[in-house]
Specification:
Elements (H helix, E strand, L loop, with lengths): L1 H12 L7 H4 L6 E2 H8 L3 H12 L4 E7 L6 E7 L1 H28 L2 E4 L4 E4 H6 L12 E2 L3 H111 L1
Antiparallel strand pairs: 1-3, 2-3, 4-5, 4-6
Helix pairs in contact: 3-4, 5-7
Bound molecules: zinc ion.
Length: 257
């Protein structure tokens, strides 16, 4: 299904003749533009023209690599699948709205026809012409819209089916993007953990090296620190109580007012 949708997108954006590029851009990783040109059997300039047209809609992404020997850049391309699907969905969504509007008009308004000339018009226009055909002078008759409406509704349900299919693909793509993201996060976390571990080991090694020389001094410092912290804690409690008292006194004064 996705393959078909991507081919359809290329046809809409570039034209039917460019359709084969769709399969090449849907390989998951970026593809060398020279390989694309070779596989399509067109020149590199023709290939780039197609790619730029698709790129104008933000449907492909590219990376470039410098050729160390020749000194020029080669571009690598791939579809941005989610953007492609959202682009196509937007097109069908517009079609859906237009058809819905047309069906509503067909149901609400009366149309008049000249069956001989196969001309159709809205009631207002027919009234202005005194319900006579401008071409042949025949009397215009009320159009039976039921068949037209049926056709429109059939089209509408096809479009709805297409939109549902696109939605399924969008959900699939979102899930796979989420998985990729999670993988990257996990990878980054592992890297962090590795660095932390390395830093820990380095610190331990340093400590051990210095411990032997300053062991006695550090023990003395630790005991003195403990004493000072014990003294500080009760002071804090009294400060807190005072602020509470102030608050209650303020409340009393506001009540009197
Ligand atoms: Zn006529």
């Amino acid at each position: 299904m996705l393959d078909n949708l991507l081919r359809e997108i290329v046809t809409i954006v570039v034209g039917k003749q460019a359709e084969p590029i769709a399969d090449l851009l849907n390989s998951g990783s970026h593809v060398n533009e020279f390989i694309i040109a070779k596989k399509l059997d067109v020149t590199i300039n023709q290939t780039r023209n197609i790619l730029y047209k698709i790129s104008n809609f933000g449907l492909v992404s590219s990376i470039r690599k410098k050729d160390k020997k020749k000194g020029w850049y080669t571009y690598f391309w791939k579809f941005e699948i989610l953007k492609c699907l959202e682009f196509l969905r937007e097109i069908y969504s517009k079609k859906f709205d237009e058809l819905t509007q047309e069906i509503r008009e067909r149901n609400e308004k009366r149309f008049y026809v000249c069956e001989r000339c196969n001309i159709e018009m809205e009631e207002e226009e027919a009234l202005a012409k005194d319900f006579a055909c401008e071409e042949c002078g025949d009397l215009l008759t009320v159009k039976d819209s039921s068949k037209v409406i049926k056709d429109l509704e059939r089209n509408l349900s096809k479009i709805k089916e297409k939109m549902d299919a696109i939605d399924v693909e969008i959900e699939k793509e979102k899930i796979s993007l989420e998985k990729i993201k999670l993988k990257e996060i996990k990878k980054a976390e592992k890297e962090k953990e590795k660095k932390k571990e390395a830093a820990k080991i380095a610190r331990r090694v340093k400590k051990k090296a210095s411990e032997k020389t300053v062991k006695k001094k550090t023990v003395k410092k630790k005991t003195s620190k403990k004493k000072t912290t014990k003294k500080k804690t009760p002071k804090k409690k009294t400060v807190k109580k005072k602020t509470v008292k102030k608050k209650t006194s303020k409340k009393k004064t506001t009540k009197k007012k």
